[in-house]
């Protein structure tokens, strides 16, 4: 018991929690934006892979770290555009289209990586984002190491949460976006474009998802591996339902998740001899399912989620 | 003035033509990545065709590859008909495979006429149990089955790894994480001498036939389709929607479990954690390409298997990454989705005056 308390009070534990949560924060915010507009985006898992590969590849080819971030976001927006066109004006099944985008984005990323680097046994490395050292802020006891000695991408993720919250709750665009996910007819009656709003939300959301992937290759690790996304995208989809489509709660969900993951890694070293390591590896997925089951009944779904809307047809 | 309007009913040639055309377009689109990879396109396509039709062995390999895809394709097709989104066939496949080695690798030593059916039934039951969990979570708690089945895939795969290092580990495997082999009399019979194609294929074909008949002609099939087309109306008509959903979940999971049985007891003989290169997920593409028709699943599984086997052989001959096959498979899914839209709507020209009015 003392050990757990000691872990929970340590700076390194909370710093690790936020680090582990970062890709999920990007992914959750991306999924939330898409779903707020009424479009479920199961392309997330593949878009993570595409963001990871494109961001890494851009840096490896010499685009610079922020160049890589930009390329990853553009790649995400591209796959978002595909999903948007298929599900919004064409009104096709959001489930199947999303899975199709995941398969397409994943296989395209893997094929491109293998074609660019046919015979490498150990994946080439890049110089990833380093932990920031902000004068004054980083020196605050406890908070400094936990919050302000993270990489720039973690700072960006936290900034994105604030931005998404602000846009959704304090701007006309946000009101329109929420309306298009609840009652598209009312948006159309206002003379706004339902298609434009939805496709736009899916593209921006997908760009954010890709940043989650880019964090993996450009901040958490320094290379690209096949299968490195490992279900993080699906976890984000579960977390959005858990958070009832509220950005603040989604951030909290991602942080709790990160904390749990950081805790299980530390517990593993404590009780590793008694319990097989796989039990700990399973924990995040089990936790996601539990979170989903607990929240499912109470969740306030965007009312037009999964429902296609066609112009001139009621 | 151009208008898009729905067709009253898509023509018969459309339901057949759309998937075929989608497959052809996806194959043709593969020329772009092939060219970017610097391969001679005509030679590459030639190698792919040779890889499937070049010899009896090549063709039998394609049939071997198509077998698990028929099972997972049927699993997806039945569930999707009821709008039950079982994306967990990959995990259910591993549950079936685990059951097969748990019972077949020496736990009971009985003659083959008893052991083979036992393995098949327990494998299907394991897969069914794997889908019963998300189905219950959906009907009882309203938890979205897409997310739960997707997450269960990861949980089950890690569980397999745990079992392969624990209870199911082959003591003779020198530390390699694999299970003990299925007893010889527990293996599904081979269909051709010196070829790997096995009687799992026959089982898949028979089940596809039964599924087709049941779906089209039975009360069960009618209920299933009613639930899929309009759950609220079905409930109003007195159909037990949750019961129907649970029933199809069991069947879908069982079929996916059989994919695992067929891979272990028909092909590999033992279980490893890399038994399936995503057969569960590819089954979704197979089902969509088949228009969710069980007989169609057989044909589209043969096509997808040809793409995989052909691309593998082309990859060995020309050094182009075999991820090309996954690319073609994913593109055929996107193409058939768009094709489905084209089939349901038609673009008509109307006179401008009418268009304004």
From TrEMBL, chain B:
Its main location: membrane. It is found in: Cell membrane. The keyword Repeat does not apply. It holds the Pfam family BPD_transp_2. The chain crosses the membrane at residues 63-80, 92-108, 114-137, 146-164, 197-216, 245-267, 279-311, 323-343. Keywords: Cell membrane, Membrane, Transmembrane, Transmembrane helix. It is a multi-pass membrane protein. It comes from the Bacteria. PANTHER family: ABC TRANSPORTER, PERMEASE PROTEIN, GUANOSINE ABC TRANSPORTER PERMEASE PROTEIN NUPP. This is ABC transporter permease. It comes from Parasedimentitalea denitrificans. The lineage of its organism: Bacteria, Pseudomonadati, Pseudomonadota, Alphaproteobacteria, Rhodobacterales.
């Amino acid at each position: 018991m003392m050990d757990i308390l000691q872990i929970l009070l340590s700076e390194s534990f909370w710093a690790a929690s936020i680090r582990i949560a970062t890709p999920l924060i990007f992914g959750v915010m991306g999924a939330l934006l898409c779903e707020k507009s009424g479009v479920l985006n199961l392309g997330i898992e593949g878009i993570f892979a595409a963001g990871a590969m494109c961001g890494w590849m851009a840096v490896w080819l010499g685009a610079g770290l922020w160049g890589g971030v930009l390329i990853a976001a553009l790649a995400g927006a591209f796959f978002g555009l595909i999903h948007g066109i298929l599900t919004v004006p064409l009104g096709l099944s959001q489930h199947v289209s999303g899975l199709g985008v995941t398969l397409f984005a994943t296989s395209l990323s893997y094929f491109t990586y293998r074609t660019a680097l046919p015979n490498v046994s150990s994946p080439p490395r890049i110089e990833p984002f380093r932990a920031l050292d902000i004068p004054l802020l980083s020196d605050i006891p406890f908070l400094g190491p936990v919050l302000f000695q993270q990489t720039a991408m973690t700072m960006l993720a936290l900034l994105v949460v604030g931005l998404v919250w602000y846009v959704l709750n304090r701007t006309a665009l946000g009101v329109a976006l929420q309306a298009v996910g609840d009652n598209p007819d009312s948006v159309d009656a206002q003379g706004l474009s339902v298609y434009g709003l939805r496709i736009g939300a899916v593209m921006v959301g997908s760009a954010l998802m890709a940043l989650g992937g880019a964090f993996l290759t450009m901040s958490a690790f320094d290379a690209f591996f096949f299968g490195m996304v490992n279900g993080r995208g699906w976890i984000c989809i579960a977390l959005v339902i858990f958070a009832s489509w509220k950005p603040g709660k989604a951030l909290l969900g991602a942080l709790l998740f990160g904390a749990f993951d950081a805790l299980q890694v530390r517990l593993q070293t404590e009780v590793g001899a008694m319990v097989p390591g796989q039990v700990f590896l399973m924990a995040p997925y089990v936790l996601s399912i539990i979170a989903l089951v607990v929240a499912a009944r109470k969740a306030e779904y965007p009312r037009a989620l999964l429902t296609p809307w066609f112009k001139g047809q009621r | 003035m151009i208008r898009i309007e729905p067709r009253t009913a898509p023509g018969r040639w459309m339901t057949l033509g759309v998937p075929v055309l989608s497959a052809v377009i996806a194959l043709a689109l593969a020329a772009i990545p092939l060219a970017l990879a610097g391969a001679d396109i005509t030679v590459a396509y030639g190698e792919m065709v040779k890889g499937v039709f070049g010899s009896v062995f090549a063709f039998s390999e394609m049939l071997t590859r198509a077998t698990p895809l028929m099972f997972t394709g049927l699993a997806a097709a039945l569930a999707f008909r009821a709008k039950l989104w079982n994306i967990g066939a990959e995990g259910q496949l591993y549950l079936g495979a685990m059951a097969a080695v748990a019972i077949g690798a020496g736990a009971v030593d009985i003659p083959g006429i008893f052991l083979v059916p036992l393995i098949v039934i327990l494998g299907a039951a394991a897969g069914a149990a794997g889908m019963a969990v998300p189905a219950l979570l959906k009907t009882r708690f309203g938890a979205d089955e897409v997310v739960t089945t997707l997450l269960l895939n990861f949980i089950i795969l890690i569980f397999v790894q745990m079992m392969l290092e624990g209870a199911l580990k082959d003591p003779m495997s020198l530390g390699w994480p694999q299970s003990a082999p299925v007893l010889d009399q527990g293996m599904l019979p081979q269909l051709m001498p010196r070829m790997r194609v096995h009687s799992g294929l026959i089982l898949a074909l028979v089940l596809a036939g039964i599924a087709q008949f049941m779906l089209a002609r039975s009360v069960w099939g009618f209920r299933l389709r009613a639930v899929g087309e309009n759950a609220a109306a079905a409930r109003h008509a007195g159909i037990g929607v949750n019961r129907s959903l649970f029933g199809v979940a069991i069947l879908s999971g069982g079929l996916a479990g059989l994919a695992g049985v067929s891979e272990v007891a028909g092909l590999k003989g033992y279980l490893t954690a890399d038994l399936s290169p995503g057969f569960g997920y590819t089954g979704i593409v197979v089902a969509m390409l088949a228009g969710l028709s069980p007989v169609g699943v057989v044909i589209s599984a043969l096509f997808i298997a040809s793409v995989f086997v052909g691309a593998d052989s082309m990859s060995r001959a020309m050094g182009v990454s075999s991820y090309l096959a996954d690319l073609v498979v994913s593109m055929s899914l996107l193409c058939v989705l768009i094709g489905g839209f084209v089939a349901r709507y038609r673009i008509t020209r109307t006179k401008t005056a009418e268009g304004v009015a």
